[in-house]
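My current task is to audit a protein record that another person submitted. What it holds is a sequence and that sequence's fold in token form. Thanks in advance; the entry in question is below.
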Amino acid sequence: MHQLVELQHLTRSEFLRGLEGVSDEAARRRVEPMNCISWMVAHLAHQERAFFVAGARGERAEPRFRAFGNASDSSQPPLEEAMALWREASEDADALLHAATEESMREVVIAPDPRGNSAELGTRLVRNIFHYWVHIGEISAIRQVLGHPSPPEFVTLHGWTYGGS
């Protein structure tokens, strides 16, 4: 598996650790100006779907994912629904990502985004990884404001090393 894909999996696992113990009620609570946690979950699902599933086919993500895109209105979806979108998007994205090679990471295989930007698969993957970390930090901040116990310590790496596990 390509090292960037391994890093994506590490990032996703840290994202899930940051959600441990979050109730639906807490996930739907908005601490302005940030969006709520469940919206962030669905938002990350949208990006994975747009970058690695629909975009790879030259299509736009389905409306149920686009409802959580960058220009979408703030909403408070149930956490279970947001997690279902996220699981679907990340599992479907893995079909492309697990087949990635060093050569394919350099190819522009992703259709242009709505702003007309094209990028190589590797560039989009790095952007997606960084995007996750932004929201991991926001989720940690929201949890602190809501009075949750100390957030998990990031990053523990769970045995991940450069060059493979």
Notes: The domain at 3-145 is CATH 1.20.120.450 (Four Helix Bundle (Hemerythrin (Met), subunit A)). The chain has one domain: 3-145. The chain has a mean pLDDT of 89.
